[in-house]
Amino acid sequence: MASPHRYPALWALVGACASLNAFAQTSDDNDTPAVSQAQQTAERARYYESLANDNPLAISTYRLNYILPYTYDSNLPRMRDYREIGNDNPEHTELKYQISLKVALAEDIFGDNGDLFLGYTQYSLWQAYNDRDSAPFRETNYEPELFLRFDNDAEWMGWTNTFNRIGYVHQSNGRGEPISRSWNRIYAEAVFQRGPWAVSIRPWWRIPESRNEDNNPDIENYLGYGELGLLYTTAANHEIALLARGNPGKGNYGTQLDYTFPLFGRVRGYFQYYNGYGETLIDYDRRVNRIGLGVSFNPFLPGAAEETHKGYHDVAAAEAAQQYTQGGDGTEQLSSVQEEVARERRARAYFERQAQDNPLSLSTYRRNYVLPVAYNAKQPDRANFTALDPDDPPDNNEMKFQISIKAKVWDNVFGDNGDLYLAYTQRSWWQAYNSEASSPFRETNYEPELFLSFNNDTPVFGWTNTNNRIGINHQSNGRADPISRSWNRVFAEATLERGPMTMSLMPWWRVPESDADDDNPDIEKYVGYADFTFGYTRSGHEFTWLARGNPGKGNFGNQLEYAFPLWSKVHGFIQYYEGYGESLIDYDHYVRRIGIGLSFNNVFLGTP
């Protein structure tokens, strides 16, 4: 058992929760309507979270996931910072979005309470309309967390303490000097609810750094030592939230006002206003006055308007899903290959619908993984890295991770088939161990897609064509010239299954660009005109092979992956890439990389 002397902060929080629970037993307010509503809201949140944890095609939301196509800051971004990433002038108008997800790593560490989570939040400010400067990402903040959460039901003066957390958070903007910004914190958080109201208090302690490594030594003068959050949810599931941080002693504050409301399906309208300091790391000491309009894809908390037992109630699909979760993924003998394919299709439909109906989860698209070790045996491209750090070389070893999620926008566009999806995939190559260069993100590829998905059951030479897709894909690395890379494609994809085997062919057509706008005119000489994928799944183990290239030019790229079960939704993961096209910046640079880490979903069951 963990010693209180080794983990004093954790045990202090555990003790506080126990004290509140003891107090709750003597409280006379247990049955008030406000307390009852708070407890029901907390129970709904736990219920939806458990559904997401049990669903192989879902991933739990953490904070708000949103996109604001229009944001306007009346104060122009600081020129000296922007000059490090762009060649022209920044604009007042930017696109802003946030991705925030979490995965349960362990449950009930302390008897019947204390769950361990890995969380990840990323928000970006994209100069999407700044064509003069190749539309660079002005700022991206990466925020991984590891935290323990304790459920609670203690009551105090009519408020219910529903959750308590303690954790470690790293936040950085992935840049090299002189615009590198980062810090590490240990925090505690308590959430109190009363009727439609919720309050969170989150103090933190910054982990000290040496003067040589501290990029922002005065950040606490602007952001202070904690955050206060306030949320009000109406009966119609409209949400109004206020976030406040700052340093009263220095007279510096930052406040954010959010308003979300239901539109259709899981899509919610979203209005955001930020005023003050600390909106992002690069702007921690710059006053921002920004308004934004867009959509969000999950609520802060499930409101009373959410049905507690929404879901997909196809009995055959539920039985197929149960077989899958109990290990029946091709190991049992079925009367025919077609029956096995049909069972997997029903299971996929069940899990997809359940993920779609769960307000506190998003559906996975491709694989979500992190490779703490990703070693390239070939020498990394020094010429492109010079644009990030002219003095220090890139390391062969880096951290690689991928986030891939999707949301259904329109169900059954063509009668009883044809679903419209919005998807987003992001791959990052992080020089995490290159402290000499301030550990920058060497490359990030942003890949939004919009596609129509059609279910099918046509037999083809012993295989079954289970799914066909057509869509448009944008891919870019968010950099300014001379290392800007981007292209747009229209694609079609056919997926065929046969027992434990799956294969797909995805040809594409590149949307033409003018010579002046084309950052990579010869990219098809290296990555070709299609991707081919083959997969084999057995008892939760999954092997995949991805091939692309241009045979006429003798250029190829091959990726081999192997995922195997560890515990819960966590899989061991090995990835090997050889050839061209691993990333946009390396589309014409030969890579030989081996990576070892974890993945959080299988890939073929997730084909929509």
TrEMBL record:
Cell location: Cell outer membrane
The name this protein goes by in its record: Phospholipase A1
Role, per record: Hydrolysis of phosphatidylcholine with phospholipase A2 (EC 3.1.1.4) and phospholipase A1 (EC 3.1.1.32) activities.
GO annotation (BP), single: lipid catabolic process
PROSITE patterns to which the protein is assigned, alphabetical: PROKAR_LIPOPROTEIN
Residues reported in the UniProt entry to bind Ca(2+): 438, 479, 484, 519
Primary enzyme class: hydrolase
Leader peptide range in chain numbering: 1-24
UniProt-annotated catalytic positions: 474, 476
Taxonomic superkingdom: Bacteria
Subunit structure of this chain's protein: Homodimer; dimerization is reversible, and the dimeric form is the active one.
Organism the protein comes from: Halotalea alkalilenta
A Pfam family matched in the record: PLA1
Family affiliation: Belongs to the phospholipase A1 family.
A cellular component term, taken from the record's GO annotations: cell outer membrane
Catalytic activity: a 1,2-diacyl-sn-glycero-3-phosphocholine + H2O = a 1-acyl-sn-glycero-3-phosphocholine + a fatty acid + H(+); a 1,2-diacyl-sn-glycero-3-phosphocholine + H2O = a 2-acyl-sn-glycero-3-phosphocholine + a fatty acid + H(+)
Keywords: Calcium, Cell outer membrane, Hydrolase, Lipid degradation, Lipid metabolism, Membrane, Metal-binding, Signal, Transmembrane, Transmembrane beta strand
